[in-house]
């Protein structure tokens, strides 16, 4: 009898908990995991035709979600893209450009950002990985809490690479404090003068495990020279080979801790940015040398997060947005033979250009969205920009936008969820010049001073600079080979006007 009573008692509790969970699930907004890869090109994933490297986890995401064929980063470089993603504002309005590791925070802390908006909707917010939006007020003290930073723009939790893997300081910050810092060995950073800290690449090339160009021959940490100079903080230095493991652990820890709340995780991978130094587990995972190997490494990180969500039983209630911040680049400074080893692989898919370029490959990103409970798998060719993620998610979670919020962001939640094929009518593409998409037409604004800077030439970039207007019809010419501006002056004129309206010049 006592056993029966006990059974009834336990069953009642289990039943109550199950009902409670179901009610909770119905009311729940999806968890949102934004997996933001660095410098990954449209063609760098298996489903988009990668040759020489396999991406089984990303391909699985695509199989269970929507693979977008015409979704774009807001810009062809990192800082501007990230700025637009988190603020819903075009980067040119803030003159956002690639910044150094000691640059101040470029997001105005009075702005209502994407994480602010999600917090208003009840989300717990976190960012793990590359930041590159500046930290501090321009005079950052790396030995104290560095602020303003992610917390001041809406992230409850942060674990950061402050700028890029190729820039000092080469330390992680957790909630804006350097991790593992010994107070008796304080950190100083300079991008102007050499500090008598770590040896530098120009003087000690024999210490380097990967050689590089002159811009990256500053302080050497972990056998890699970087942009900028750094002194101190030895106990806190990261080991490049371990970055994917450290970041994935932190991302999964955040998911674990917040599994019962709706959460927003901005998982901003270091891969596949240079220095491309794969962990030994991934060395020779591809036939393309380090660049291919770090694609395999990136795919592993994605798989670990998918596994974590599955093991916690929250996959069905989680929306994953997988994308990249700008187009691919084979030679960005470090000598890892990506150009020599690429073979038949097309990092930008069928598209012309690369990182830094105004042609399509600069911004057209591999983009996959999954949310098993809501999304029917498939492909979608709506024209979309990452600047729209803000307004689209606001619509999803029922947040109204104030007049000043996300001024350039359009709500296309129907398209992001695959319920509509309709995206933007017109879309700005920012690079070192500007372009506009209008349906299949692509117009590139002429650049008065069309001389190509030497560093762009050295990187074999096809930037799209021309003193003449360029117009392409991507429907018949997806690779932007035939400039038809002279054949369609009326289209050129209309698009020029639309673009000038946006740029207000
Ligand atoms: C460029 C760097 C490049 C890379 C890039 C940032 C030089 C010549 N080039 O200025 O190596 O660090 O900035 O990449 O210094 S991004 O993906 O963060 O935009
Ligand atoms: Ca980038």
Structure in a nutshell:
With 505 residues, this protein is of the alpha/beta class. 25% of the residues lie in helices and 15% in strands. Helix 5 (243-257) runs parallel beside helix 6.
Draw up the topology in text.
Layout: H1 2-27, E1 31-37, H2 56-64, E2 66-68, E3 71-72, H3 78-87, H4 114-120, E4 124-130, E5 157-161, E6 173-174, E7 177-178, E8 188-190, E9 220-221, E10 224-225, E11 229-231, H5 243-257, E12 263-268, H6 290-311, E13 318-324, H7 338-341, E14 367-370, E15 378-380, E16 384-385, H8 389-396, H9 413-416, E17 426-430, E18 434-438, E19 441-444, H10 454-458, E20 470-473, H11 489-503
Parallel strand pairs: 1-12, 1-13, 2-15, 3-16, 4-5, 4-12
Antiparallel strand pairs: 2-14, 5-6, 6-7, 8-11, 9-10, 13-14, 17-18, 18-19, 19-20
Bound molecules: 2-acetamido-2-deoxy-6-O-sulfo-beta-D-galactopyranose (NG6) and calcium ion.
The site of calcium ion has 6 residues, from loops.
Distance between the termini: 85 Å
Query: Helical amount among residues, as a percent range?
Result: 10-25%
Rounded Rg: 23 Å
DSSP helical segment count: 11
Percentage beta strand: 15-25%
Overall average residue pLDDT: 94
The main sheet comes to: 10 strands, mixed
Number of strands: 20
Bound molecules: 2-acetamido-2-deoxy-6-O-sulfo-beta-D-galactopyranose, calcium ion
């Amino acid at each position: 009898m006592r056993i029966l009573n006990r059974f009834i008692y336990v069953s009642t509790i289990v039943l109550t908990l199950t009902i409670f969970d179901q009610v909770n699930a119905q009311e729940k907004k999806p968890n949102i995991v934004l997996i933001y890869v660095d410098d990954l090109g449209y063609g760098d994933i298996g489903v988009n035709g990668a040759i020489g490297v396999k991406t089984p986890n990303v391909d699985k995401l695509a199989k269970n979600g929507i693979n977008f064929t015409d979704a774009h980063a807001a810009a062809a470089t990192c800082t501007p893209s990230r700025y637009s993603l988190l603020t819903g504002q075009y980067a040119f309005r803030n003159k956002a450009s690639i910044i150094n590791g000691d640059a101040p925070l470029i997001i105005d802390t009075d702005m209502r950002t994407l994480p602010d908006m999600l917090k208003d909707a009840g989300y717990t917010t976190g960012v793990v990985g590359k930041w590159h939006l500046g930290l501090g007020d321009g005079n950052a003290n790396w030995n104290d809490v560095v602020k303003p930073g992610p917390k001041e723009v809406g992230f409850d939790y942060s674990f950061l690479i402050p700028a890029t893997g190729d820039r000092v300081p080469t330390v992680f910050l957790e909630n804006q404090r350097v991790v593992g810092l010994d107070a008796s060995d304080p950190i100083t950073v300079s991008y102007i003068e050499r500090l008598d800290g770590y040896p530098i690449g120009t003087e000690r090339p024999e210490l380097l495990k990967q050689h590089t160009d002159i811009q990256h021959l500053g302080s050497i940490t972990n056998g890699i020279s970087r942009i900028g100079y750094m002194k101190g903080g030895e106990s806190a230095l990261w080991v490049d080979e371990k970055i994917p493991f450290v970041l994935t652990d932190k991302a999964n820890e955040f998911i674990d801790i917040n599994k019962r709340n709706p959460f927003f995780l901005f998982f901003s991978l270091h891969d596949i940015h240079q220095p491309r130094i794969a962990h030994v587990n991934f060395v020779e995972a591809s036939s393309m040398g380090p660049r291919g190997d770090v694609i395999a490494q990136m795919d592993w990180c994605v798989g670990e997060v998918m596994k974590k969500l599955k093991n916690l039983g929250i996959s069905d209630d989680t929306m994953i947005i997988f994308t990249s911040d700008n187009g691919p680049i084979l030679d960005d400074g470090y000598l890892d033979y990506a150009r020599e080893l690429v073979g038949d692989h097309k990092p930008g898919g069928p598209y012309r250009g690369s990182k830094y370029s105004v042609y399509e490959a600069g911004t057209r990103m591999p983009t996959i969205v999954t949310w098993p409970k809501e999304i029917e798998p498939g492909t979608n060719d709506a024209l979309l920009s990452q600047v729209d993620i803000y307004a689209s998610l606001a619509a999803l979670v029922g947040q109204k936008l104030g007049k000043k919020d996300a001024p350039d962001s359009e709500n296309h939640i129907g398209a992001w969820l695959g319920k509509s094929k309709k995206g933007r009518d017109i879309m700005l593409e920012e690079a070192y010049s500007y372009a506009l998409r209008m349906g299949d037409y692509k117009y590139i604004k002429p650049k008065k001073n069309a001389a190509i800077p030497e560093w762009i030439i050295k990187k074999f970039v096809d930037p799209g600079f021309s003193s003449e207007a360029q117009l392409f019809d991507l429907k018949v010419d997806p690779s932007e080979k035939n400039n038809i501006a002279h054949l369609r002056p009326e289209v050129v004129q209309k698009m020029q006007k639309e673009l000038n309206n946006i740029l207000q010049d």
